[in-house]
Amino acid sequence: MDVDVVVIGTGQAGVPLAARLAKAGRRVLIAERAEPGGTCVNVGCTPTKTMIASARAAHVARTAGRLGVRAGAVEVDLAAVVERKDRIVRQWREGILKRLQGAGQNLTLVRGHARFAGEREIEVAGQRHRAPAVVINVGARPALPPLPGLAGVPWLDNRRVMELVRLPEHLVVLGGGYIGCELGQMFRRFGSEVTIADRNEHLLSREDDEVSAAIEEAFRAEGIRLVLGQGASAVAADGAGVRVRLADGSDLRGSHLLVAVGRRPNTDDLGCEAAGVRLDEKGFVVVDDDYRASAAGVYAVGDATAQPQFTHTSWDDHRVLFDRLIGRPARPRSARLIPYTVFTDPQVAGVGLTEKAARSRGLVHETASMPFGLVARAIETGETAGAMKILVDPGTERILGATLVGAEAGELIHVLVALMQAGAPARAIVEAQFVHPTFAEGVQSLVMRLPRFALE
């Protein structure tokens, strides 16, 4: 079949891109070897945040006494939690299929493993398809560390751990990044003992130290054991459980092992060499600022490229590439802000530069910090854990970056995202009226901690 565009993968960039191109009159073929929706719908955002909501409900009920409410004993039916998660995942999958079917006769969905068979030519389900444009949207999967003994134990990744219907007695988590922190706290709130081990000195090690310290304090307060600055050197079975040998020779023992040490792109079985598509040393597709790969007519979007692996980033990829493919002007992929949120409790959200990054670039900046517990709304609701930090350019008063740790930080960060996108100065926050008492009012209080905006 000859078409105008081939899209490999039905992730968060591929589906809207294919559907919009088809409605714009392009003949599009989209190939998918697994369930539609990619990482986000099947094993990422949708299932994790659904189960995290259940874990938070258990935590709120269990700790209601701090607000003068006695809820009694809390029991978690993990099988029911998983069934609810699966039901919501199916709902999203069905929605994706309906969108693809609703795009009209210009769009063809082919189920099967697509591989390059030549320049701008793929083979899938026993047939070959050619197009002037091929878009790679194959996503990523959990990285497997070269850890001696790992193959001999029933280790879990982020997908398999969410399929458990019996609560782990003691979950050992290797990795203190986004996935390890979210899932570790989730199972602690379900009732498991949890230990998180990471070779770095702090959780969320890319953040400034005081940001990591805030989430570490919250985790320890919930009884999560943290073993930091210690990488694993080997793994072995320990009766019905597992034993993790650390770099210092000590051992961690648990009933279950979750490995969350990063993700790798799904490009190793894509046949990129047949199409002249260059990969970097980690397997990511090398693309320029317009999403173009090394082979003419080939583009790559989403987690298969070396960029932050967020659903909203992939979705934005589709928006920019769509404009380029239909001939509209579009901004380069580097000219955008990429906010993020870690859905722990308290949440960790950021945009722009951390202070560590600003210093490494030699940027002059002013900074202000503030405990989240000073926000009136936080005190009133008993959600005082966390801290906030902002960086401002002293010459233009533009916001260089901010990190918020606190209740609903993932919502609050958008106040700053909007101002940064507009190029507005931080002074705009100072001069605005923020509703009292809200969490957002704390963002204004944070900015007013900068000496130039402090009230006399």
Reconstruct the topology from this structure.
Layout: E1 5-8, H1 14-23, E2 28-32, H2 38-42, H3 45-62, H4 78-101, E3 107-111, E4 115-118, E5 121-124, E6 127-130, E7 133-136, E8 140-142, H5 158-161, E9 170-174, H6 178-190, E10 193-198, H7 209-221, E11 225-228, E12 232-238, E13 241-246, E14 251-254, E15 256-259, E16 263-265, H8 272-275, E17 298-300, H9 311-325, E18 340-342, E19 347-352, H10 355-360, E20 366-371, H11 376-381, E21 387-392, E22 399-406, H12 409-422, H13 427-431, H14 440-447
Parallel strand pairs: 1-2, 1-7, 2-3, 7-17, 9-10, 9-15, 10-11
Antiparallel strand pairs: 4-5, 5-6, 8-16, 12-13, 13-14, 18-19, 19-22, 20-21, 21-22
Helix pairs in contact: 1-9, 3-4, 3-6
Class computed from helices, strands and strand pairing: alpha/beta
| Uncertain residue ranges | none
H/I helix tally: 14
Q: Architecture of the largest domain, according to CATH?
A: 3-Layer(bba) Sandwich
What does this structure look like?
The chain is built from 14 helices and 22 strands. It is α/β, with parallel strands linked by helices. The mean pLDDT is 97. The protein has three domains: 200 residues, 3-Layer(bba) Sandwich (FAD/NAD(P)-binding domain), CATH 3.50.50.60; 112 residues, FAD/NAD(P)-binding domain (3-Layer(bba) Sandwich); 112 residues, Enolase-like, domain 1, CATH 3.30.390.30. The radius of gyration is 24 Å and the shape is globular. Helix 3 packs across helix 6.
